[in-house]
Design brief:
Elements (H helix, E strand, L loop, with lengths): L2 E7 L5 H12 L4 E3 L8 E8 L6 H5 L3 E9 L1 E3 L8 E4 L7 H9 L3 E5 L8 E2 L2 E2 H6 L9 E14 L11 E8 L5 H12 L3 E11 L2 E2 L6 H9 L6 E2 L9 E5 L4 H5 L9 E3 L9 E5 L5 E9 L3 E8 L3
Parallel strand pairs: 3-12, 15-17
Antiparallel strand pairs: 1-3, 1-14, 2-3, 4-11, 4-12, 5-6, 7-10, 8-9, 10-11, 12-13, 15-16, 17-18, 18-19
């Protein structure tokens, strides 16, 4: 069984627990996720199964879209609702314009310091392990991209004022590696009132959207009926790549990682140039390998990631 499962992760389960559930359900160890989603968060969690586990790194590179709730006036130790309150600011009033200007300043390339409650390793230890021990260590800031950040809703006790406890629902489209809870924390800090992420769901991870995701209960019911329509072909993770079908006699060369020549292509949907990456497909449309167009003594197609068994 090879392919991708677009799982709608429920809140309260870690990404690893979701992987374990699917491993038991499908009776296979070859299942992995493509970037963790916090236990308290819900939403899209693409899983790779079988040979598709070799695609993990490519799926991790995808941009993400989130729906996050920022609660103003309350800062927490974890930057989200799971932590303890570290600061309260109950007496402030902000204009909607100031909030909008602050949000605009976080669009584009920004610098983030990873939170202590994250999975990054420092000297061999996960930061969240140190966080649970009450230990804080210096972390290096990293550059991420926030492509867009928009207000979807705003709940405040006063109609025209933003004060303590105001909740702001944000739609955020960002690059991989963006910590949304840190973004919420930093927004609160820049506004001068403090804040934390009180809710998070991932709407999309690259081409995988929540509207097309399956709950664990739906997947279990399909497996019980002997159906596997929840399993997407590996091509779904490679949208935007050039797909090239190759002559069946070349499959053994590809299996061993040997180059093939352009005349062995059965169809080329676009003009290829040296340096281009392509997906090599069988006549039936199965993914055989990822390859690069190179110049040796002549133009060749060199596989660098083979999926054939």
């Amino acid at each position: 069984m090879d392919g991708i499962i677009n799982v709608l992760k429920p809140p309260g389960m870690s990404s690893h627990q979701v992987v374990s559930f699917i491993r038991r359900l499908l009776k296979t160890k070859k299942v992995g996720h493509t970037g963790t989603l916090d236990p308290g968060a819900s939403g899209v969690l693409p899983l790779v199964v079988g040979n598709a586990t070799k695609l993990s790194n490519y799926l991790m590179d995808h941009d993400k879209t989130y729906l996050a709730e920022l609660t103003l006036g309350i800062s927490t130790t974890s930057q989200d609702a799971s932590g303890t309150t570290s600061a309260l600011n109950t007496n402030f009033s902000l204009s909607p314009r100031k909030l909008a200007d602050c949000l605009a300043s976080f669009q584009g390339t920004i610098s983030q310091t990873p939170p202590m409650a994250s999975a990054i390793r420092v000297e061999g230890k996960r930061l969240y392990e140190l966080y649970r021990q009450g230990v804080s260590v210096p972390r290096k800031p990293r550059q991420v991209q926030v492509h867009s950040i928009n207000i979807m809703a705003l709940w405040s006790e006063e109609e025209d004022k933003i004060g303590f406890g105001t909740r702001v629902l944000l739609r955020i489209h960002c690059s991989k590696g963006t910590y949304v809870r840190t973004l919420c924390h930093d927004l609160g800090e820049k506004l001068g009132v403090g804040g934390h992420m009180s809710f998070l769901t991932r709407l999309a991870s690259g081409p995988f959207h929540s509207s097309e995701a399956h709950t664990l209960e739906e997947i279990a019911a399909l497996v019980e009926r002997g159906e596997d329509r929840f399993l997407l072909p590996m091509q779904e993770a490679l949208q935007g790549w050039t797909m090239v079908k190759v002559h069946p006699l070349m499959q053994e060369r590809i299996r061993h990682g040997n180059f093939i020549l352009p005349q062995h292509f059965l169809d080329v949907p676009a003009t290829l140039t040296v340096g281009d990456d392509v997906v090599l497909l069988s006549v039936e449309g199965d993914v055989l390998a990822l390859a690069e167009i190179k110049m040796a003594d002549q133009i060749i197609c060199q596989p660098y990631r083979v999926f054939m068994r």
